[in-house]
Amino acid sequence: MNESDLPMIEESTLQMVPEKIARTFCVLPQAVNANSITLYCPDDAQFRIEHEETIRFALNQAIEWIPVPRSVLDLTIEKYFPGSKAEIRNCSIRFRFNCPQKWASLTPTRDPNQRNCFECDRIVYRCNNEHEAKWLGKQGKCIALITSDDSEFLGEVDDTDWGTRLQKPAPQLPVGRERL
């Protein structure tokens, strides 16, 4: 099975599942009716055990499931929610190494926010904001930073000057007051 085997998803149906949920849990809507939503989901036996309740709560709908190979879902999600290699703006993160891979091309793991890179055989951690990227980068982990405009940046974070960038300056006291 490949991505072209899945029927075209109508825009009105696609809008029923926010992109963040689609990417985080690797699900896509197939159909929506008054009582429920039908989702394509990974064919992993553990998937529903681990994520069904969270997704049901997030979508506030009864859910019917259609299992599909995760690799097909990854490619299809990328088709409907394409990322780009745009410039990161207003972000203090610099990369020591910019990885040419795309999140969708990495090998899924049991954790939807972690994938294995087949090129370097390292785990890549998905980050949805700069804070997560800094925290994981300080630990020496490869990250995939997904920005608010759905741009994606993969690589190893350069944290050489974070000590100074992350320290907040001491608050200034009014003139005539001394620190104790």
Kindly report the average pLDDT value. 75
Proportion of residues in extended strands: 25-35%
Tally of DSSP helical segments = 6
CATH superfamily caption of the largest domain: Type II secretion system, protein E, N-terminal domain
Biggest sheet: strands, sense, closure? 6 strands, mixed
- Beta strands, count: 9
List keywords for this structure.
single chain, 180 residues, alpha+beta, GMP Synthetase, Chain A, domain 3, 2 domains, 6-stranded mixed beta sheet, 3-stranded mixed beta sheet, 6 helices, 9 strands
In short:
The protein is of the alpha+beta class. It is built from six helices and nine strands.
How would you portray this structure in words?
This protein is of the alpha+beta class and 180 residues long. It has two domains: 3-80, Type II secretion system, protein E, N-terminal domain (GMP Synthetase, Chain A, domain 3), CATH 3.30.300.160; 94-165, no CATH class. It has six helices and nine strands. The strands form two sheets. A six-stranded mixed beta sheet has the order 4-9-8-7-6-5, covered by helices on one side. A three-stranded mixed beta sheet has the order 1-2-3. It is elongated. 23% of the residues are buried. Residues 84-90 and 161-174 have low confidence and may be disordered.
